[in-house]
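Researcher: Next entry in the queue.
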Amino acid sequence: MAIDNRRLLRAAFLLFVLAQTALTNAERRFCYYDHITFYDVYAYTVSDSLAPVPEGIYRLNNSRFTTVLPATDLDQMGDTLRLEVTISALCDNYDRIGSVDLVLMSRDSLTYNDCVHLNANGSTYSGRLGDTDPSIQRIEIGRFITPFMDKNKGVDVPYSWDISFLSPLFHDKQLRDTMNLWLEFHLEGVPYAANTQIAGCSGRNDVFAGTLEIVTSDSRSDFLPQHQLTLPLAYERYLNSYSKGHSDEEGTTVAHYQVHLDEPMNDAMFLMINSNHGANSGGEEYNRRLHYVWVNEWMALVYRPGRSSCEPFRMYNTQSNGIYGNSAMTEEAWQSFSNWCPGDVIDNRIIHLGALPAGDYDFRLLVPDAVFNDNQGYFPFSLTFFGVREGGIDGLDVLSNGSEPSTQISWDGDNLHIKGGLEHVAEWTLLNAAGQRIAVQPGEVSEIKMFHHPTSVYILLLLMDDGTTEAHKFFKQ
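Model: Structure for this entry, 477 residues:
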C-alpha cells in the first residue's frame, strides 16, 4: 500500500499546530508564597533565624511579607491574569482580614520596611501598617476574610480575583526599567482565643499559613513603551465619621480624591476596595448601608455590600461561631445583617471610565447612613486610578455591569412617573445634583410629586429586591 507523503506532512503539521495551540492556551502558574506562616500581628516580629523564610522573600512584620516579581515572570504573563490565594488555619480560629498588595519601588531599593512599630520600651512589634514612606506606592489588589477555623479539621480556603486590569502595568517596559514591582502578602491573625480553645495551640503564636499564585492563560510578546498611568490614591484608609481626619466631610462618611490628567486616556478606571467593620452591638458589620460613588457629576456606582447568602462558605467555617449558627439560614436572614462572609473575598469594585480627555476628575465615596454606634468601627478604603494612552484595559467587559434598567421614567412638568418592573422595587431614593438624599421610602413607587423642589438636576435611585440598583437622571425646570 503506497504511502502519501503529502498527507503525512499535512497530518504532522496539523498535530504541530494543535500542540502549539494547546501550549499557548495552557495555564501558567507563578507561585510566590508556598504555605508561608503568619504570626501574631501584635507580637514582636519573629526573627528569620527562628522562623526562616525562603530566599527572595522578606518578612516586613509578622503579618506581612514581600517579594519582587521577577522580570522573567512578567515577560511570560499575558493579558488574562488571575490572583489565587489559599489559606489554612494554624492557631487563630476567628475571622480576620487579609490582603494582597502591589508595591512600586525604585530599582535602587533592595528592600523596604515601613511596617515596624515601637513599644514604649523601644522594642518593635508588628501592629497595623504605619505611616507609609512617601517613596512607597502601595496598591491593594485583593482583600479577603478568613473563616472561623479549627486547625485540626484540615480545611483549605480558596480565594480568587480577576486582575487582568494589571496587564498594562506588568508590561510597561519603561516603568520596569526604573521601578521594581513587589508583591506583598498580608494577613492579620491573633492566637489568644485559639490558645485555650483549640487543641494543640497552647503557647503558640503561629496563626495562618498561606499560598499565593498568579495564573495566566495566554502570552504576550510585545512590550508597550510608557503608555499607562497608575496612581495609588488611598491604601486601607480607615473611614469613619467620628475621628478627626478619617472623613473628608466632618460628621459624615466621605472619601474624596482628585486626579489631574495632563493628557487624554484612551481607557481608564478606578479600582476601589472597601469593607465594613465594627462588631460591637449595632456595629457597621451588621448593617448594610447604601454606598454612592460619584465621578464629577456622574453617579458611577451605587451598591449595598454583602452576598445574597453566606451559605456557600459554611463548609470552611469549621469552628463554631455566632455568625453561622448550627443550621442553614435563608437568604433573607443573611441579608438582614451580613456585610461580608467569613471565608469569602471582598469585591474589587471597578468604576470603568472609558476614554477621558485631559483635565480634572473628582472621585467621591459617600455612605450617608453609616452610624458607627458608640464611636466604634471603620471602613478600610483603598483606591487606585489606572489609565492607558493606547489600546484598552483588559477584563473590563467582564467586570463592568452594562445591564439595561427595567423601569422607565417620564416627566409631566410637576410629577415624575415611573413605569415597568415596579413590583421589584424595594426602596427608592431621590438625590439632588450634589448627591444629597432629599427623600427616601421603602416599597414600589409609581409617581413622585416634584412641585415643591427647585429647578435642578435630580437622580432617582431604585433599589431592587435582588440587590441591584437603577439610577435615572432628570431635569426639573
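Model: Residues 408-476 form a domain with the Immunoglobulin-like fold (CATH 2.60.40.3080).
Researcher: Noted, moving on.
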